[in-house]
Write a structure and sequence with these properties.
Largest sheet: 5 strands, parallel
Number of strands: 7
Number of helices: 12
Helix content: 40-55%
Bound molecules: magnesium ion
CATH topology of one domain: Rossmann fold
Radius of gyration: 23 Å
Length: 268
């Protein structure tokens, strides 16, 4: 009996030691796990598929109406689209981060961009071909850095996207604010529609998010947004996230997790 008690106590102590040896989950890993949930939705949910198809279908309807009522102008009609999580599906990159317990870094992102193997998102190719068939000029305005211009162009061409040519791809050189690049296109084009997964893909006005996180701005500009911008869902990352962090993305993972908890309305 004594021997049995001894064996049980030794086994119990070993089990306790085993548990205490398990590495605690770091704040970075917790953030990465939250990204995993968003990535599963974006990459694998039927709801995401339907949302994109619906959004791009509305885009086609708006283009059709706008082309039918186009006023005489020397300016050529055009459409401006963002690339990442608008036309290109980078969810495999986000999946890699989750599976490795990592978060975004410019190194891992550039490696992914250089692979040039992003697929097109649901509805994007059909929308682009429709715009092309209407005679619209298509401009891809993205905040990918200019250093990945060649693989990005190659990716668009591999997907056989219309007007995937050098002059139609405007990447980031110095700043992420897209206003200048939009103005360049506007110099001799009439922009009928913008498409993106960030409100700033439409206007930089939406970068100034205060305590309402930009929701007040959406209300203020609701009419023109619904007429001129196709908003696509992206729960994985975006300006909405930095707004939660007080527009300071350099905060630590622990601070970011705390701010995520703090911002939630639970009606307890
Ligand atoms: Mg984007």
């Amino acid at each position: 009996m004594r021997l049995l008690l001894f064996i049980i106590s030794v086994l119990t102590i070993n089990a306790c030691q085993q548990i205490s040896k398990e590495k605690p989950i770091s704040a970075d890993e917790k953030l990465s796990m939250q990204l995993g949930n968003a990535t599963v939705w974006f990459q694998q949910s039927a709801e995401m598929e339907a949302s994109f198809l619906q959004a791009y279908d509305k885009g086609k309807m708006l283009l059709k109406i706008k082309m039918d009522t186009l006023s005489d102008s020397n300016l050529k009609p055009a459409v401006i689209l963002d690339l990442d999580e608008t036309v290109l599906d980078n969810s495999p990159y986000e999946a890699r981060l989750f599976l490795k317990g990592e978060n975004y870094s410019s190194e891992s992102w550039e490696k992914w961009c250089n692979e040039a193997q992003a697929d097109a998102l649901p509805g994007a190719v059909e929308f682009l071909n429709f715009a092309d068939s209407l005679g619209l000029k298509i401009f891809y305005v993205s905040n990918r850095k200019i250093g990945v211009f060649e693989p990005t162009l190659k990716n668009l061409q591999t997907l056989k996207l219309p007007q995937a040519e050098k002059d139609h791809l405007l990447l980031r050189t110095t700043k992420s604010d897209k206003t200048e690049r939009r103005e360049m296109v506007k110099a001799d084009h009439q922009i009928l529609l913008y498409v993106g997964d960030n409100l700033t893909d439409y206007s930089q006005v939406f970068a100034e998010r205060d305590s309402t996180l930009g929701k007040d701005l959406v209300k203020k500009h609701q009419k023109e947004l619904l007429q001129n911008f196709i908003m696509l869902p992206n729960p994985m990352y975006g300006e909405w996230e930095s707004a939660v962090y007080g527009n300071d993305f350099s905060k630590s993972a622990t601070e970011k997790l705390e701010l995520r908890k703090k911002i939630l309305e639970s009606k307890f």
